[in-house]
């Protein structure tokens, strides 16, 4: 028996599901970028010297292909180009263009944070007109209320000591969501708009990993970006100001921005908590350690929303 060649050894290290989207092309190398529970992402180098990003997702992550086919592509959202896809039994494998190796998380600068805030304003503004006719992936007021209710039920089951911790959110959430619906048109929501998902290119920052994208009005993406920046002493106030400045330049000044940010924070936190309690604890080893922090964030968001509600 002959010893394996270098090419064979390399192939053995690559994910076995790569062949589902490679169309017979041979890979010469790869780096695993992320791996947790139901999601795994690689940068693959091909024989012609090109690189692509390949991702396998299961569970809720398996919706990523539908997000691309029914939301991002038809409404021309600025997301990485989808090159190939495979839909399996409860999972998908997706191949994307590779936008580069410099993420905002690994190369944080004040300029990068502020440019990303402006990017968010541009994405929301550009998508507003396009997504109005779509009902798919719409995160409605009723669905947000249901998310809170599901999170509360799951919290009682998983952490009985925290039963009732989300009760204070309910009377604050509903009227503010109705007010938001009456003043802000639906647009694109990335769902995980953090520095790890921002690639810095020569043309500016670019958002990647749109697997949790939805249609809605809330500013959870800005909240998520500000929260992320705050973890590393980033320029949080300047990020908010840059977003507001860009909105004004686009002819759509941000209205009651602190109130919108507080409401977006509540929605983002409830959505994250619901996922952690219903799915995350079963697929991510450390997910149970996130629960207390998210419950505390929900309480803080409730207080912030009360304080920032106009007329309070």
Please give a structural write-up.
By secondary structure, this protein is of the alpha+beta class. The chain folds into two domains: 6-97, Phosphorylase Kinase, domain 1, CATH 3.30.200; 110-308, Aminoglycoside 3'-phosphotransferase, Chain: A, domain 2. Helices cover 46% and strands 17% of the residues. The strands form three sheets. The chain has a five-stranded antiparallel beta sheet, sandwiched between helices. It has a two-stranded antiparallel sheet with strand order 6-9. Strands 7-8 form a two-stranded antiparallel ribbon. A hairpin with a 3-residue loop joins strand 4 (82-87) and strand 5 (91-97). Helix 6 runs antiparallel to helix 7 and helix 6 packs across helix 8. The relative contact order is 0.13. Residues 70-244 form the Aminoglycoside phosphotransferase domain.
The CATH superfamily of the largest domain appears as Aminoglycoside phosphotransferase (APH), C-terminal lobe
Q: Could you name the CATH class of the largest domain?
A: Alpha Beta
- Total count of strands: 9
The CATH topology of the largest domain is what?
Aminoglycoside 3'-phosphotransferase, Chain: A, domain 2
Q: Return the CATH architecture of the largest domain.
A: Alpha-Beta Complex
Strand content is 15-25%
Order of helices and strands: HEEEHEEHHHEEEEHHHH
Structural class comes to: alpha+beta
- The helicity comes to 40-55%
Strand ordering within the main sheet: 1-2-3-5-4
Q: Supply Rg.
A: 21 Å
- Gap from first CA to last CA: 79 Å
Count up the domains.
Answer: 2
Domain Aminoglycoside phosphotransferase: 70-244
Pfam family, one: APH
Protein name: Aminoglycoside phosphotransferase domain-containing protein
Organism: Micromonospora arida
